[in-house]
Amino acid sequence: MTIILLILGLIAGLIAGLFGVGGGIIFTPVLFFLFEQAGISNSVPWAVASGLMCTWITALASVVRQYNQQHLFLKEGLLLGFFGALGISLGKWVLLSPYYSRTEFIIVFSSLLFYSAVLMFMRGRKTEIDIEVDKDVSFQSFSPKQASITGLIGGGIASLAGVGGGGTMVPIMNLFFKQYFRKAVSISHLGMLTMITVGVLQLMAEQPELNGAGQSLTKWTLGYVDLGAVNSMGWTALLGAYCGAWLNHKIPRHYLQLGFALLALVMGTRLLLTL
Question: Which of 10-19, 49-58, 141-150 has the highest mean pLDDT?
């Protein structure tokens, strides 16, 4: 089992660094099924919290890598993270409430992902690539209004689905707010790091109801976060995130967008299969 978790962590980290998503599309479903098999009665918050903790590791690695490449948009990323933290706090309240219905959310979120995938696919097919202005992406403004819309949506989705939110925030910034793809990826990484820090700390502070044996995968837990499971996946995810962030600057933008479209389709399908 440990070897499987190490391999999955590497794959998730690579995806995170390459496309600007948090890796939660792999972390969270794997952890969800593991918690289910362990007989945990309330597996969703455990999977979400532990998946977000794994995602935090990959986001940190990507931010460090982009800082070293001098491609870190500090102001925009922190602004996005602020509003993302508000969104993840609201989403956490819904996640832990007895009124939270996963079915309606999964349908809406999957529809959004499929829509984003279609838009990304259509845009990625265009061959008049980036017009070299991509080198001057720092001149493209990202307003507080845009950050608030993107962050609240991304943060809410992060806490409810256990994903980093980048899978939603990147297409919002790239397609609707006309941010260049690599800039959107960079902003999303720092935004995810900030908002997930807030969300994980809140979930660590919670006191899960214990109904006997089998309440977590390992004995090393803090709140809803299974630190033992996170440790098994986190180290290889860190390596994968560094590789992915490096590849992000080596692959033409239209290929990245086509790849992101495929990733969004996979994310949406994965969510629908949990119904």
Answer: 141-150
Type of residue numbered 215: Q
The number of beta carbons lying within 10 Å of the beta carbon of residue 245 is 28
Residue-wise DSSP of the chain: -HHHHHHHHHHHHHHHHHHT--SHHHHHHHHHHHHHHTT-TTHHHHHHHHHHHHHHHHHHHHHHHHHHTT---HHHHHHHHHHHHHHHHHHHHHHTSTT--HHHHHHHHHHHHHHHHHHHHHHHT--S--TTGGGGGGGS---HHHHHHHHHHHHHHHHHHSS-SHHHHHHIIIIIS---HHHHHHHHHHHHHHHHHHHHHHHHHS-PPP-SS-SSSSS-EETTEEHHHHHHHHHHHHHHHHHHHHHHTTS-HHHHHHHHHHHHHHHHHHHHTT-
CA distance 168 to 19: 11
Give the range among 2-11, 56-65, 136-145, 233-242 with minimum mean pLDDT.
Answer: 136-145
Give the Cα separation of 221 and 228 in Å (integer): 7
Higher pLDDT, residue 92 or 252: 92
200-210, pLDDT tens digit by residue? Answer: 999 999 988 75
Is 0.85 topped by the overall pTM?
A: no
**pLDDT on residue 57:** 84
